């Protein structure tokens, strides 16, 4: 109690009042002292303290020793320059002598001398006064002075208290660094110095001012940064320790005073920082530097081991409280309106950095508990609270679930007691967290639906809770953004029907408010992000965004977006008034229709565009085309480029800041903060509302061969991909992948939004598929790691649909990236090796767990197999069994070196034990089939292996590696036939793919763009020869079954059956490959080898079956096979004869079998005989030295017969059988192109009726062939000529009274004519016989036909089948051909033909005799519904005739 009074007394000295004597002061105090023990002792202590505080040492020395004493040059002794040669002991001895002479304590004199020199050093710089740091010269002097002072202190010649008092007298001249040196040198501690001054407020003001200057200079100076940082750390340590020590002795005056001082300094510094942030800080301004440096003290490293862990935690909690409660001037209504501007990206980075530092010490549960306590007990600054929530969900990975639970607690409490404060807090917190995007917190619309959209909602307990909810929502209406009201209207709370009025009232109120804000629910965009609180876009502006997004979805799916179709029905006002005008904006249409044109056409075909609007659009586009100015396109491009560059600058800056933070990739909060800024800038670059992170489509459609991006999209993708690669390299230089934290996963999440993911995938397709060999090592490493992280997210990402020319299929993300890696050339093989090595190495380094789920999500089996394939192919040492003596390490560090040796790294990975363990997984086995599929992609002329090296590799792979390998491991179990079977199957698949073939005009397979299959086919030929000659032939499951035909049969059975266009084209494509394979193998495969027993006929059953069931329909033209397969068969015949004891007998047996089992082989020989005969004769003569076998001679005779019939000479007699002669004559007529063959037909005698009938059949096939295949080179007859030929033959038959109706009633009767003819014509031709029948209608002799009993049935049957063909669309080819040819119009038109046939039948039915109606009922029962009028006419006529069954037994029951 004495000290304040003493201060008051002392203050009187400067007030102008009379100065009292010392005796008066003592007397006045004695009167006020209470009587008691120890009074004199206390009085003595108080007097001494008073003397110490007010003793003027200068005056005392002057009084004792005079002015000469002051010039005793104590300062000179203490001066470092003057006393350089004086030791501390000498100075101490001099001070002792002087103190003895003066009669004062030596400690007091020494303290005065040291303090004087101390102040002199601080003031000796001559620099501006606003400084806290010493310069180099001052530090040197200060070091010498402190050395002397330490000597004096050690010898009890120095008084700390006196020294502190002297310093406080001149505190304005002190430099903070000099004071800090006293503390560091243990001369006077900071606490002792601060406690020695009674004026706490002055001390706080002095410390605050100097600490601010220190923080400014610490950021501005690079020379003294370490000293400044150490100073600030020591000061903060002292303040935190003294201010937040839990067990402080509050009964002691000094400790309590120090605690108040410490907290006051910390509080003032924090308030200064928060005020500076509130007023707005410019980067690199003095205030900015000061705040940044001060916030840097909130770090665990600042306190070290000198402070217990509880003290910083209390300090951080206190600081967080101060931040959250700083100037709570904002009301809840203000927070509702303004909180969208308080997101993480929009909050000042210094404030978010403070939050992150506070979070580092406090656990998430403690943070939320502290937040809840502050919210419940204090008035808060809502801006700071909500920005803290944003930082929390961004920077703490576990915060999402904790915040969800926290909000649920608030809601439960709110509805339990209708607590409005808890309700407000819950909604504000949820909306704030949702602003940060779905990658860190669910959208507001999702949360609102989950919380109130079901019977389990908090509001569903009673009417009271419902009223409370809608009262709260209604109170929010005047303040909240339109987005939230739209969410409440479109996804309303679930309300029982009896309380529906509550919801109706709210919806009416919200719609009224939206109308006041000029926001229409009807004009909402199709793709508006309701989870976003951004400003509502004008309808026309939103419509343009909807159009761009709809076009993007249409590009990637190939279908009209569902949102567009729904809007055309349920939201028609917006669709018609805004969306369609934006879509149909007039423009100059591109020559090649783009996605916008395709979308417009799809909508038009679906009747979703009014015809008038579409017509106006087309006219406007035509006008724009006419008025198109020159060089308009470059101007548009330049303007677009200028607009595109503007938002990319901030994005690039944010990515650079992220790159700079990669020095410590494990700092989750720091990198998450940077990633949040990147996401915000990325959203701006892509356009408002476009990047909401949710994927509407289930798949992304890409064109592998021609991936295309707009210029701005490619720039954004390149920025992101380059940044990822740079960040990965930087992070890997500081830490291995398993210790880099989740930064990469967060980066990938930012790239997986609805709009951005297709862009990124398209750019990766361009880079990996088309530019892979030109990528640098850092790009390869970065993209490989990116692929691994995208694979981790495969469950949340859509599949990628690969369109033409790749097989139409959808692939998960990992398989999609594997499909981009090709190795047809040496360059692409090396790139594939690099990429696979990098991806697998990164994954193995990153993943501590090797569970199957992780394996298959990150690494696709295809990528693992490609790495095995390339490694085995390029490195012969990899083909040896792996050695376990020296297990290799993972090569990731090798790959990160500037001079990476990729081959060494690949071999290192191959030998790595973990990788070898992976290869034991069944899904990662490189099977024989996999190896063949990959090897077929190699282009030999561009291969890194020479021809010899490639042959050696093939021999090793097939015979040494896969052939002996068990089938469970992907091998062949030692069976050569199995190896051949798999090779053929893979070869067919490869030839079917778009990578390896083009179709020529004659539909023959032309191997083009990918020629690796040539070498593999050579291996097939080698193995097939080994199989035929070696012991492996005995391993066949059936001695009469060749493996090749077994493969064909199995594959054909798996194909879709039917005669629709798709099924036919697929089957024809398959058969073309079969034929190509057959032609490449020895001809003996078709015929087989002669049997040992007699007769020595080879077994051609398999080939005959293939011809009759497949080749006849798809690889033949009008009754004959193609030339190549025909020649190959007869070469096989000669080969079989060469192995037979009786060659002629063998040839005759084979050809005789052809007559009954496969007659089309013989007709094919007749067609190609001019080209076939020379080879047959020369080879037979050379090998067998005899005439041709009898059956071959008969073919020659048939060919001569056909020629002779067309010559003016007498025709030679036709050889048997008749259909062979007829075929020969038919082909001769076609090749000659004769118009009038009447005279030639007259040469045929009357005994050849069967020949004429069969010739008529072949002419009918020729007529159909002229319609279906008019391009054939060997067919010189067009449709009109073919019709004339049919008419001439028909006239000849009618003249000779030969019935020809049997040709339209052919059946598979063994040994009959139908058995042969049905095997001579393709099934599609047989199905089109009704068309041929009625094409000849005008040539019928109706009177003669009416006399035939079978005519009416055949005519009706053909008519009904013609209608069925027309309905099924099988006459479309004929119709298209007739439409293209003016001459054929009226002849090939199926509709006209049906009309004529119908008219003919209706006229003929009344004229037909009753015998013509037999069995008509059965026909009408099956197909009579096709034409009810014809059916009725038939039934009416049949009933009018006498009942043919009159005498049959009646059916009474």
How do the strands and helices of this protein lay out in sequence?
Layout: H1 2-11, H2 22-32, H3 39-54, H4 57-65, H5 67-70, H6 74-78, H7 88-102, H8 106-122, H9 136-154, H10 160-169, H11 176-184, H12 190-195, H13 200-220, H14 225-243, H15 253-279, H16 286-295, H17 300-303, H18 310-324, H19 332-338, H20 349-361, H21 364-377, H22 382-395, H23 399-417, H24 420-434, H25 444-452, H26 463-476, H27 482-490, H28 500-516, H29 539-557, H30 562-570, H31 572-583, H32 595-605, H33 611-626, H34 632-660, H35 668-686, E1 699-702, H36 711-734, H37 743-750, H38 756-770, H39 777-792, E2 799-802, E3 809-811, H40 813-819, H41 826-846, H42 852-858, H43 861-874, H44 892-895, H45 902-911, H46 913-918, H47 928-935, H48 947-962, H49 976-992, E4 997-999, E5 1005-1007, H50 1013-1029, H51 1043-1054, H52 1061-1080, H53 1084-1087, H54 1101-1114, H55 1123-1138, H56 1143-1157, H57 1159-1167, H58 1169-1184, H59 1190-1206, H60 1218-1232, H61 1238-1242, H62 1249-1268, H63 1279-1295, H64 1313-1317, H65 1323-1327, H66 1329-1335, H67 1342-1346, H68 1351-1368, H69 1372-1380, H70 1390-1404, H71 1416-1423, H72 1428-1440
Parallel strand pairs: 1-2
Antiparallel strand pairs: 2-3, 4-5
Helix pairs in contact: 7-9, 8-9, 8-10, 13-14, 13-15, 13-16, 14-15, 15-16, 20-22, 22-24, 23-24, 26-28, 27-28, 29-31, 30-31, 34-35, 34-36, 35-37, 36-38, 36-39, 39-41, 39-42, 40-43, 41-43, 41-45, 47-49, 49-50, 49-51, 49-52, 55-56, 55-58, 56-57, 57-60, 59-60, 60-62, 62-63, 62-66, 66-68, 68-70
